């Protein structure tokens, strides 16, 4: 293990222990700790292999009704209509994209967030190859 990897691992463990100290034994924090310590999370910008078509979705965290994903857009995006049962908050981290959100055009640049309440029709019309997104999905609670 190189020095940089060792330093990142130590930092991740420190952050995890800080969370436990600050928030106690909450189940969500425990899940985050397991994710960080047992499966160290890499930097969101590391190993961003651009797919030739469509997009690649990497699930970073899945807990109860919450899913956090890193999405990498490919070189050939075919617009696809989405109407999802969950709320979604997405932020464009790198690249650029044009979307249609409930019939209204939106041009996104790095740093632009979008909140898509459940049932909102949306579509990515165009994006630069390698556009990087962070998506947070909040699914309805199960009764």
Describe the model:
Residues 74-125 form the Cupin type-2 domain. InterPro entries: Cupin_2, RmlC-like_jellyroll, RmlC_Cupin_sf. This is Cupin 2 domain-containing protein. This protein has 143 residues and is an alpha+beta fold. The protein has two domains: 3-38; 55-138, Sandwich (Jelly Rolls). The chain is 23% helix and 36% strand. It is built from two helices and eight strands, in the order ααββββββββ. The protein has a five-stranded antiparallel sheet, with helices on one face. Strands 5-4-7 form a three-stranded antiparallel sheet, with no helix packed on it. Helix 1 packs antiparallel against helix 2 (27-38). The relative contact order is 0.18. Mean pLDDT is 81; it is low at 10-14.
Q: How are the secondary structure elements laid out?
A:
Blueprint: H1 3-23, H2 27-38, E1 55-63, E2 66-73, E3 87-94, E4 97-101, E5 104-108, E6 113-116, E7 122-127, E8 132-138
Helix pairs in contact: 1-2
Helix content percent band: 10-25%
How many separate domains make up the residues?
A: 2
Briefly note the structural class of the backbone: alpha+beta
Oligomer classification: single chain
Main sheet specs: 5 strands, antiparallel
Give, in spatial order, the strands making up the sheet with the most strands.
1-2-8-3-6
- Low-confidence residue ranges: 10-14
**Radius of gyration, in angstroms, nearest whole number:** 17 Å
- CATH architecture grouping of the largest domain: Sandwich
Looking at the structure, what is the overall shape? globular
What is the CATH T-level topology of the largest domain?
Answer: Jelly Rolls
Counting H and I runs of at least 4 residues, what is the number of helices?
2
| Mean model confidence by pLDDT | 81
Please provide the count of β strands: 8
Fourth-tier CATH superfamily name of the largest domain:
Jelly Rolls
CATH class of the largest domain: Mainly Beta
The N- to C-terminal Cα distance equals 46 Å
* Secondary-structure element order, N to C: HHEEEEEEEE
Q: Beta-sheet strand percentage?
A: 35-45%
InterPro entries: Cupin_2, RmlC-like_jellyroll, RmlC_Cupin_sf
Pfam family, one: Cupin_2
Domain Cupin type-2: 74-125
Organism: Chromatocurvus halotolerans
